[in-house]
Structure to design on (345 residues):
């Protein structure tokens, strides 16, 4: 695209913008100054304005993986870059370019409608496409990093647009180069490589149970099964505020795993890298008696101990206080440290 010939209007700046609808916890939060970003070309000027005013800043997508305070000082960039298109296709794979502001679940549904299976295990994960690779979102044995070809972003350090190949993104469990370098990159577009040789991935327990009598499901059937499972386990943020999984599944050495098995024979875990084991954080929390418990306006979801919820009127301080209680109890009981998944702003 020729930016000079297709220059968009400058990003709108909005003072004292309420963000209750832009965070899935439903916390009452106000941004001192917000900018609506609808095109990559708007970003350099916004970043320059922010630097000139010496303002703190951050990017906010769907607000599904953040914990917002009552007052958000400085500038908040609202990521609203839309659009998705197949930019090339050969015998091996199709390349799909997607704007950073596209709703993640809607994209997954769109890929299936357009005969591009592969992302179905990641259905119903809240948030935007631009935020997804930062956290390297994953579910049911699939991570977004598995399907990324490259990422286009604005590098605020060098004040230039850059393209990072998959290898440069350093994807790991719930981690990436973007997460390791907070606030350096603003993801504007993600280019996915969707292989033509599709294979069903249903080895995770919940999916395996769903397809016990159907070992060869279609991508659409997996999509519907994942939606059914997640709907049962995770509350709808429009009904009760939450950010999905609040803690990462801890990864421990095999020696520690074997030691835990001696006293907790029903410990839920999954294979990980050689010499390591991934423990189910939800199971650990449940064993400590937190499932369904409430602490003032916040609590632990009754169907999934991994999910913390805002029953209404809760604050970031409330949810972090509950999280501390959970982390302390899990560490005391199992000797395992839980890491908070959402970003604390």
């Amino acid at each position: 695209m020729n930016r000079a010939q297709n220059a968009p209007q400058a990003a709108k700046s909005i003072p004292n913008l309420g963000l209750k609808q832009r965070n899935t916890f439903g916390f009452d939060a106000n941004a001192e100054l917000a900018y609506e970003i609808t095109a990559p070309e708007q970003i350099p000027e916004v970043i320059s304005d922010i630097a000139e005013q010496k303002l703190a800043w951050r990017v906010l997508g769907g607000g599904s993986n953040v914990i917002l305070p009552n007052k958000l000082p400085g500038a908040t960039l609202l990521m609203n870059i839309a659009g998705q298109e197949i930019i090339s296709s050969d015998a091996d794979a199709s390349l799909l370019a997607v704007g950073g502001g596209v709703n993640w679940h809607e994209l997954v549904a769109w890929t299936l409608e357009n005969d591009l299976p592969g992302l179905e295990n990641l259905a119903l994960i809240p948030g935007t496409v631009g935020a997804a690779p930062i956290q390297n979102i994953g579910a049911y044995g699939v991570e977004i990093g598995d399907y990324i070809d490259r990422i286009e972003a604005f590098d605020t350090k060098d004040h230039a647009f850059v393209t990072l190949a998959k290898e440069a993104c350093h994807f790991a469990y719930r981690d990436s180069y973007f997460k390791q370098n907070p606030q350096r990159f603003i993801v504007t577009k993600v280019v996915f490589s969707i292989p033509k040789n599709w294979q069903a991935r249903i080895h995770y327990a919940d999916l395996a149970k769903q397809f016990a009598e159907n070992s060869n499901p279609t991508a659409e059937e997996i999509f519907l099964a994942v939606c059914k499972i997640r709907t049962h386990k995770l509350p709808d943020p429009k009904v009760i505020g939450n950010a999905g999984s609040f803690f990462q599944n801890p990864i421990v050495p095999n020696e520690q795993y074997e030691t835990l098995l001696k006293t907790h024979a029903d410990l839920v875990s999954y294979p990980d890298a050689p010499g390591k084991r991934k423990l189910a954080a939800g199971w650990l929390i449940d064993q400590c008696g937190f499932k369904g418990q409430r602490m003032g306006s916040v609590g632990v979801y009754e169907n999934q101990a991994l999910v913390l919820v805002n029953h209404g009127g809760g604050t970031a301080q409330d949810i972090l206080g509950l999280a501390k209680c959970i982390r302390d109890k899990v560490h005391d009981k199992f000797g395992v440290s839980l890491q908070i998944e959402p970003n604390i702003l």
User: Anything to note?
Assistant: DSSP finds nine helices and 20 strands in the chain. The longest helix spans residues 316-334.
